[in-house]
Fold each of these.
Amino acid sequence: MVVPAVHSSSPDIKIDARRLYRIFGSTRAVNDVSFEVGAGQVYGFIGPNGAGKTTTMRILSTLDLPDYGDALVDGFSVINDPDRVRRRLGFMPDGFGTYPNMTCIEYLDFFARAYGIIGRERMRTLRFTLAYTGLDKIAEKPVRSLSKGMRQRLCLGRAMIHNPTVLILDEPANGLDPRARIELRNMLRGLAQQGKALLVSSHILTELGEMCDAIGIIEQGKLIVTGTVTEIRRQLQPQVTVRVHLLGRGEELAAWLQRRGEPIHAVSASAENVEFKLSGDDPQARHQLLQQMIEERFPVVDFSAQRSTLEDVFMHLTTGAVQ
Ligand SMILES: Nc1ncnc2c1ncn2[C@@H]1O[C@H](COP(=O)(O)OP(=O)(O)O)[C@@H](O)[C@H]1O
Ligand SMILES: [Mg+2]
């Protein structure tokens, strides 16, 4: 296929994937994928196993070539300028190899040297990386004695040792306990605050939680949605879940709500709790509904509304298909 000519994008766009395709036999592993990640942004790349996340990330990291399309990393083409791309990019693959007999500092030092960081600059870089990843206290410990979370920090340290503008992390939270995951999230947010662009994949949406500024949902090689978290929420028909706690007459309230129909649906109740969904996100409509409940003398104690979470959006958008 002919590679389309690409022109450099705005300097704030650090990853600019343009119509990427990668085909293995009859599998379209990456099927027309385009998205952008800006400086200071964390972009969550979310999709089930086999969706095409790793293949896309390998192309962006210059480890594989697209069959069609191109991508610019910090303004440089992964096809025409792979060397420049590599200098500006840190990639943490799914399951980075570590050398069990090296200590943390030896491991990082090895990669700092590989990047040609020398002399005082190397010492400064090592100190900074160990401190940033919270490994300074265990710098002299052998890699084999590290917990999964600590090892993941070390791998992140390795990916950031040459101070790249762009970081691509393939399933970094995989297998981490909740605490290690929160620590990872804080480290990644910190790197974004320094102005780096981060592309982070996961097959579990909640794993990335609310750390992302933007997300792309990929399924069977196709990016089915991409945009900032706010844009994606807005694109969807918004829905709020309302919970009402009352002193009694819950079933009666449920029947009253069901009779009203749209925009009320999915009503469920017990004697003291009623839950239902409201299409649209209209505070005025909620206010009127509450007022009418009070007028009908339902003994309401609490009335709370919750907007759809990112997870609801994910369930709504994806079919769960795998290839
Ligand atoms: N080198 C390869 N040869 C053949 N098929 C591949 C190769 N790499 C990936 N695939 C296929 O491409 C699809 C996407 O894989 P991958 O990018 O690893 O998905 P993910 O990382 O989202 O789990 C899968 O169907 C996988 O089997
Ligand atoms: Mg993968």
Note: The pocket of magnesium ion (ligand 2) is lined by residues 53-54, 94, 170 (CB under 6 Å).
Amino acid sequence: MQLRQSPPVAEEADFALTYRFGPYFLDVAHRRLFSGSDVKTLPEKPFQVLTLLLEADGKVVERHTFFERLWPGDPVGDANLTQHIFMLRGLLGEHGGDNEYVLTVPGKGYRLAMPSEKKLGLAMKGSCERCGRVLKPLDEAYICSYECTFCPVCSDAMARICPNCGGEQVARPRR
Ligand SMILES: [Zn+2]
Ligand SMILES: [Zn+2]
């Protein structure tokens, strides 16, 4: 008897909803934060904090909005929010008082230092960027989070690492 194996996780790109800001790329469905070749799966609460900031697109997110979204019906103190902001800043590589991405707005809340770009799905290119092979919509192809597109042969040869951005290439969804 043969055991049926489920398909490996994260083999197929499912970047349904994504945000870009600064050097970062957030894959919302998988809570994955990409930066070049670095990929982190964000813990639930820092992910929610980041999502709220991204939805606000550089505008202030007030403290009560965080409380309502992160701890609905569960009154927590300011210290809790401060702690999760601190965690998010750490995940974004911000240490000490040098905050490049998440800014404190005194008396109000927090905001992102830059606008974010929201996207539904990734736009695949029509040909391999390495060998120029034409890729039709249902052809097997690999794509990185910055939409660099490669044929399977080239992607294999590069061990799935994008030469342009250093990011991981994943199989594109078949539609
Ligand atoms: Zn190719
Ligand atoms: Zn790339």
Note: Confidence is low (pLDDT under 50) at residues 1-12.
